[in-house]
Amino acid sequence: MAIRAGKQNLVQAFTAKDPGGHGDAVKQTTEYIALFDNIIHRTRFPKFIIVVSQELEKGCVELFEGLLQHGRLTLEKLIDRAKSGKHIQENSNIENAVRENLSKLVHAHFVERCPAIEPVLAPPSEDELAAKKRASRSLKIAAGPDIVQRVLEAAAPMESKRFLFMSDENCIDSEKAEASFVDVGEKRKHSLLASDSDLGIKEEVLWRANYEEFLRRFRHKACVENVRERLDDGAAIALSSMLEAGRRLESKLKTETSVSVSINAIYEEAMKAEVGRSMTLDDLRDYLTLLECQKGADESYSIDLKSILELAQNEEVESIVLKKYGKDSYRIFRLLSKEGHLVETDKISDTAFVDKKEAPKILYKLWKDEYVYMQKVTVMGNRQSQFVLWKVNKATLWKNVENDMYHAALNLSLRVAHEMEQGKELLSLPVEKRVGTLGEKVNRLRRIRLVLEESLSKLDDAIMLFHVF
């Protein structure tokens, strides 16, 4: 079961070394960690496929779908899979086509080399050992809060090889030439690979979908759409062009600030969009100023992505409050969210233009549902007075909102499955029999499924905003 989950990129095995006590031999055990984010990413496969289909041709999409289905495959397996669906006379061209399509997918960073199957995790530091001794034996792995990150870093291929695709006959020479450019942190990985080559061990490269690339594109899209709604299409084109020009230079997903990109590179990207073609260089500079981009001495620009995403999160929760509680509750919540500190009840009523009798009722309702935090303060003087103060605790609320979204997504998924189960007999009917009343029922079922799946997709966008981005 663990091996199958590993092939589907749902778990990561690793070898843990226990140094033991004085005189004891070093113990090695194989352990597994579940990659919960990768489990959730499986529901996003249709979105991944859409991105690939918009950028590359059909052959690349089919190959990519095979990788999503099987988790990880070698080039040989990809070729065999492609040949199985073709006529014998077509097989002669398939191998070259698969190589070319895989090369395009790797070049676009849609596909990457798989991590090590079972990396060796270095022994913990003295501080980590002390923490483990204080923890119970059953919570040994959980005692290290960064264990997942440490394992993933140990398993990851060298960055210089992650998107390396070439013919087998060129691999050895290129790897030797590559050794001189490897940084200190990756020398150990390279030496292990070199020792295998010296022993005549041929490395069989496994490929898999690169989830990070798709999530980065979705993150950029969320920022661009937020700017489009708050400002206009021109500002959105300017931001989109900046992010597209610098996307390949980003080293990690959750970057607070975009990489610096020259004005010429941004303008070149802007010219590719229909709206951008009418934009002059001065127009672009004005939009970058409007976006409050940081400008470098060489007229390179970067932008604070963290602030844009925080605005998007605020707006998402505010929209939930508006739909769930109404306009007065929305104004009160928005006020507290912007203030960021404790505010007294009467001041909330005056500032948000809400009736003084209604404001306390609304606040207590929001407090009961954990949308706001309440604190009572007693002031001693000639006579004792009590004030009730309110604020939005975003750290707690955002986590609660995220959990609610997961529950809603589960309910929608179950509803889709229920509708499909109820209508499976209708869907199994031949096309020629789907007429009259039966045809109307089939069309109704399709409409219901479409609406539910669109709702689920939008909900997933909101989940990514809070959990992934």
UniProtKB/TrEMBL annotation:
It is found in: Nucleus. One of its GO terms (cellular component) is RNA polymerase III complex. One of its GO terms (molecular function) is single-stranded DNA binding. Residues 317-379 form the DNA-directed RNA polymerase III subunit RPC3 winged-helix domain. One of its GO terms (biological process) is DNA-templated transcription. InterPro entries: POLR3C_WHD, RNA_pol_III_Rpc82_C, RPC3, WH-like_DNA-bd_sf. Residues 101-309 form the RNA polymerase III Rpc82 C -terminal domain. Keywords: DNA-directed RNA polymerase, Nucleus, Transcription. DNA-dependent RNA polymerase catalyzes the transcription of DNA into RNA using the four ribonucleoside triphosphates as substrates. Specific core component of RNA polymerase III which synthesizes small RNAs, such as 5S rRNA and tRNAs. Belongs to the eukaryotic RPC3/POLR3C RNA polymerase subunit family. PANTHER family: DNA-DIRECTED RNA POLYMERASE III SUBUNIT RPC3, RNA POLYMERASE III DNA DIRECTED -RELATED. Component of the RNA polymerase III (Pol III) complex consisting of 17 subunits. This is DNA-directed RNA polymerase III subunit RPC3. It comes from Punica granatum (Pomegranate).
